[in-house]
Write a structure and sequence with these properties.
This protein is α+β, with helices and mostly antiparallel strands and 231 residues long. The chain has nine helices and six strands; from the N terminus they run E-H-E-H-E-E-H-H-H-E-H-H-H-H-E. The N and C termini lie far apart (41 Å). Bound molecules: glutathione. Glutathione binds next to helix 1 and helix 3. InterPro entries: Glutathione-S-Trfase_C_sf, Glutathione_S-Trfase_N, Thioredoxin-like_sf.
Length: 231
Amino acid sequence: MTNKDDSSQNIYLLIGNKNYSTWSLRAWLCCRKAGVIFTEIKKALYVDGYQEKLLEYGPTGLVPVLIQKDLRIWDSLAICETIAERNPKMWPLDASQRAHARAICAEMHSGFRAIRSQIPMNCRANKRKLMFSPELQAEIRRVEEIWTSCLRQQHSKSSPWLFGEFTIADAMYVPLVLHFKTYGVVMNQICSTYMQMVLNDADVKTWLAAALLEEEIIAECEVGVVCDTLA
Ligand SMILES: N[C@@H](CCC(=O)N[C@@H](CS)C(=O)NCC(=O)O)C(=O)O
């Protein structure tokens, strides 16, 4: 799936709205960072008939889906794993770091429900304020703990990502930076530096620029009130 590989031809990635679809962003970013050449197929979510359209690409009717010839991979983590098979650097090369990375990816993929539902990703929005529930606060502190423990390791000193070089762990956690940016979530210094680095990343900026141009509104993802005093 790299551009050095003949099988890179005709790879498609089905994604949802760039403004709102976090799982799409995870797979998209992994493909970009691995150098996969792919064609984006973007479908707006929660508009009339969207589920029927998505079901033409994958059995769950969800995004993302990676399509290559007869192969259909319909889950963000499965897409990342498939890409990593041909690009082993998408996981840390050290076995214990790789195990750690896999554990935090699984934790993201199966958890953080309060973050995902109470402060949804909304790339266009800034300075949104709302009351943070105790569950939400606990999840934010857990993310801070995960990022801090990765970033404090020696291996991350040479390069700014969670395990030094960009890995699937970053693909999984980058969307949370965008959640946190919108709602002014305050993190410790080491995590704030990571967040700023993510926001300055060229691929993330490309995604955000496209999100800003979108006009669809998913009402359930428009939460909080605009508060000018938020940083
Ligand atoms: N576990 C799946 C979750 C996919 C998912 O929930 N995608 C959302 C968009 S971010 C979706 O397709 N929503 C449409 C719907 O719920 O009908 C993955 O990791 O890819």
